[in-house]
Amino acid sequence: MKTETLLERESASLGRRSFLRYAGAGLAGVGILAAGACKKDEPGDQYNSGAIDIGAQSDFAILNYAYALEQLEAAFYTQVAANMYTGATADEVALLTDIRDHEIAHREFFKAALGSKALQALTPDFTAVNFTSKASVLATAQAFEDLGVSAYNGVGYMIKSADYLTLAGKIVSVEARHAAYIRNLLNPGSFADSTILDGFGMDKVSTIPVVLKTANTFLKTKVSASAYGYTA
Amino acid sequence: MNLFNIIEEIEKVDPEFTDRISPRRAAIKNITGFGSKVAIAAMPFAFATLFKKAYGETATIPVNDVLNFALKLEYLEAAFYNAGAASALSFSTLEKSYVTTIQGHENAHVTFLKSVLGGAAVSQTSQGTAGIYDFTAGGTFSTVFTSVDTFFAVAQALEDTGVRAYKGQAPNLMGNAVALSAALNIHSVEARHAAAVRQLRRSRGGAGATTKPWITGANDTGITAVNGNYAGEDNVIQGPVTITSLPGVGANISVNAATQSFDEPLTMAQVLPLVTPFGVK
User: Fold this and answer.
1) Contact A67, A107 (CB under 8 A)
2) CATH of the domain at B121
C-alpha cells in the first residue's frame, strides 16, 4: 500500500488530475513512467528550462527537495528579521527571529548532510511580498510553513532510510510549530483549522509537483523534480 | 529503473484505495484487488518479487501494535480535553476555543485509529480504572481541573510527548506507507497543538511566561515532574552534523536554536512510563 491512496482521499481531484496530465490517460502511462524512472539524472542537472532538478528517485532527491524548501524559508525569514514589518511587537520580533534561526539551521543541516550531492544555492524572488506589511509577511510565512508541513508529510513514505525518516520527522514537527504560531498571529485559534486538516484531524499532504509549483513562484532559480512528475 | 516508483504511480490511478486503507485486509487481497484492475500476469516476472517485498515485509514491531500504542495515547488525550472542556475551569473565550478545537482533533484521531484497527483495537475501558484516568497522575498535578495554569501545563506535556511518541514510531511503520503517512499527518497536528498550548501559556504569564511555541533545551516547562518527557530534547547533534558548528547569523547557530529547530523522538518503552501514572496501560 502506498500513500497516494491516502492522499487521494483528501485531494482526489487534484492528485488525479496532475497525474493524468503528465502520465497520459490511465494505465497507458505506465510505460512512460517506467521510462521516466530510468532517467540517469543527477541532482543539480540543468535542463533546457534552466531549472535545477532534484535528480533520480532516491533519498538524496527527497533530501534535496527538503533542502530547496528550507533554502526558501531561510531566505524569507532572513529578510523578515533584517527589516521587521511595521508595528511588530517585541514578542513577534523575538519569535520570528527564532524561526529565522531554525530555518537557517535546517538549511545548513541539509547542506552539510548532503555534501557533494547538495543542490546549488537557490536565488529567491520575493517581489510579491511587501516586507513592511504585517499582513503580507505573515500570510507568506503561513503559506510557507503549511506548505513545508504538507511537503514533508507527503514524502515521508518515500524515504528508504529510517535515519533520514526520523530526521525529516524531527524537522516537520518544528515546521508545524511555526505554522501554528504564525497562524495564531494572523488569526487566533487557526493553528490547525479545517483549511489544512482533513475530517480526521490530520494534516493534509501535498505532492512534490504541487509543492514545487508553489515554491517556484518565490524562486528565481526554478526547481524541477522530473523523476517525480514535475518539470519547472 | 526503480520498479517501486512504477507501483507508486500505478496506485495513483487505482480507485480502490479506500478498501486497501485498512491494514486488516490480508496482503493477498490487496494483490488480488490490484490484479483485477491491471493484468498482472502480463507484467514482468520482477513484479512478483516486488509485491512480496512491498506487502510481505514484517516489521520489527507489528503495525497493529504501533497503531494501538497511538490509540492509547489518543484515548488519553481525548479524555483529558473532554474532561477539561466539561470542567469548571475558568478559561477565557479564546482559551476555551483552543481546548475545544484540540478536543475535536483528539477524538477524531481516536475514531480514525479505531476504524483502521477494527476488531484489533484496544478498548478504551481497558485503560485507567474501567476507562477512567487519573489526570492528577497520582497527585502530581492535583490542581489539573481547578487551575487553568496547571491544566495547560499538563496539556503541553501531553502534546509534546505525543509528538515525540509518533516521531519515534515512524521507522516502525516503514513497511506500511498508508499507516506511516497517517501517523505523520497526526504527528504534525500534535505539534500544532503543542505550539498553540505553549503560546497560551506564554500569553498567560506567570510560570509559563517564557514558554515558546518550540522546545528550548530539554525540559523548558519549569515543572520538574515532567523532566522525563523532555529528556534528550537538548540534543544538538543530528545524524553526522553538529548543528552548533554550522554558520548562523553573525556566529554559529546557538545551542538554543539548535535544540529548538529539531524535535527529538521517544521510543515506546520510553513513553509508556511517562503516561502510566495517568492510567495508560
Assistant:
1) yes
2) 1.20.1260
Chain B hits for A26, Cβ within 8 Å = 13
CATH number of the domain enclosing A72:
1.20.1260.10
Find, in chain A, the residue whose alpha carbon is nearest to that of B187. Answer: A173
- A139: its cell numbers: 500570510
Domain coverage including residue B210 = 63-224+261-278
Whether residue B107 is found in the same domain as residue B51? no
**What number of residues does chain B have?**
281
Indicate the SS3 state at residue B247. Answer: strand
- Chain A neighbours among B 235-254 (CB < 8 Å)? 238-241, 243, 246-249, 253-254
* A174 interaction partners in chain B (CB closer than 8 Å): 191, 214, 260-263
pLDDT tens digits along B46-58: 333 333 344 444 4
pLDDT in tens, A7-36: 334 343 333 333 333 333 333 333 333 333
Q: How close B94 comes to chain A (CA, Å)?
A: 7
pTM equals 0.82
B75-114 residue pLDDT tens? 999 999 999 999 999 999 999 999 999 999 999 999 999 9
Residue in chain A lying closest to B17 (CA): A5
Same domain, B165 and B204: yes
Residues B44 and B18 in one domain: yes
Number of compact structural domains in chain A: 1
Q: What is the nearest CA distance from A190 to chain B, expressed in angstroms?
A: 9
**Cβ–Cβ pairs < 8 A, chains A and B:** 269
B60 in A contact zone (CB under 8 Å): no
Asked if B79 and B190 sit in the same domain, the reply is yes
- Long-range contacts, stretch A158-163, CB < 8 angstroms, 24+ apart: A158/A57, A158/A62, A158/B8, A159/A59, A159/A62, A160/A58, A160/A59, A161/A59, A162/B171, A162/B174, A163/B239
